[in-house]
């Protein structure tokens, strides 16, 4: 529903497939009526790996980066500066690893579908990766990485900073 509504624009400006929902309620209703409950979960094959990879990278790089800056004596171990530095490194790593999954999920969510709910552009997660890579190159998987970092960077830094401080309490 979110992706349908975010991609929607005036027909004069439209790029790609348009769903033309009036509001969130009509989007839920329309998707459910056309494709059932399964239609509300379309694209989940791109979202689940995104969250799994993102969470793993976030925690692993945070701990490693925080220790690394402390070992080099850039910041004192356990200091707020070491925690922030670890969070910043983790934010970059999260953006780099999650952006391809964001691109794939968005393409899967937003593609037009047949009457039976089958995507008209991509057969699934792997097909989407292969098509993007072959037609747009590997950098096609990194479209919007700047916007992804602007969203995930501060979120990662703040989440990990507060998590670390609360954990130490």
Automatic annotation (TrEMBL):
<keyword id="KW-0496">Mitochondrion</keyword>
<keyword id="KW-1133">Transmembrane helix</keyword>
<feature type="repeat" description="Solcar">
    <location>
        <begin position="1"/>
        <end position="68"/>
    </location>
</feature>
<feature type="transmembrane region" description="Helical">
    <location>
        <begin position="144"/>
        <end position="163"/>
    </location>
</feature>
<feature type="repeat" description="Solcar">
    <location>
        <begin position="78"/>
        <end position="169"/>
    </location>
</feature>
<protein>
    <recommendedName>
        <fullName>Solute carrier family 25 member 34</fullName>
    </recommendedName>
</protein>
<comment type="similarity">
    <text>Belongs to the mitochondrial carrier (TC 2.A.29) family.</text>
</comment>
<dbReference type="Pfam" id="PF00153">
    <property type="entry name" value="Mito_carr"/>
</dbReference>
<dbReference type="GO" id="GO:0005743">
    <property type="term" value="C:mitochondrial inner membrane"/>
</dbReference>
<dbReference type="InterPro" id="IPR051508">
    <property type="entry name" value="Mito_Carrier_Antiporter"/>
</dbReference>
<dbReference type="InterPro" id="IPR023395">
    <property type="entry name" value="MCP_dom_sf"/>
</dbReference>
<keyword id="KW-0813">Transport</keyword>
<keyword id="KW-0472">Membrane</keyword>
<feature type="transmembrane region" description="Helical">
    <location>
        <begin position="80"/>
        <end position="101"/>
    </location>
</feature>
<keyword id="KW-0999">Mitochondrion inner membrane</keyword>
<keyword id="KW-0812">Transmembrane</keyword>
<keyword id="KW-0677">Repeat</keyword>
<dbReference type="InterPro" id="IPR018108">
    <property type="entry name" value="MCP_transmembrane"/>
</dbReference>
């Amino acid at each position: 529903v979110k992706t349908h509504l975010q991609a929607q624009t005036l027909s004069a400006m439209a790029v790609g497939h348009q769903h033309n929902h009036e509001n969130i309620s009509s989007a839920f209703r329309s998707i459910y009526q056309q494709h059932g409950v399964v239609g509300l979960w379309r694209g989940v094959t791109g979202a689940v790996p995104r969250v799994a990879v993102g969470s793993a990278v976030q925690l692993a790089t945070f701990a490693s980066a925080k220790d690394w800056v402390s070992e080099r004596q850039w910041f004192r171990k356990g200091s707020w500066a070491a925690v922030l530095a670890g969070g910043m490194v983790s934010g970059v790593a999260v953006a780099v690893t999650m952006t391809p999954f964001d691109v794939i999920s968005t393409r899967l969510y937003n593609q037009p579908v047949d009457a039976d709910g089958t995507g008209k552009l991509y057969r699934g997660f792997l097909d989407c990766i292969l098509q993007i890579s072959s037609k747009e190159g590997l950098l096609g998987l990194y479209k919007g990485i700047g916007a992804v970092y602007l969203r995930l960077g501060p979120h990662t830094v703040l989440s990990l900073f507060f998590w670390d401080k609360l954990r130490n309490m």
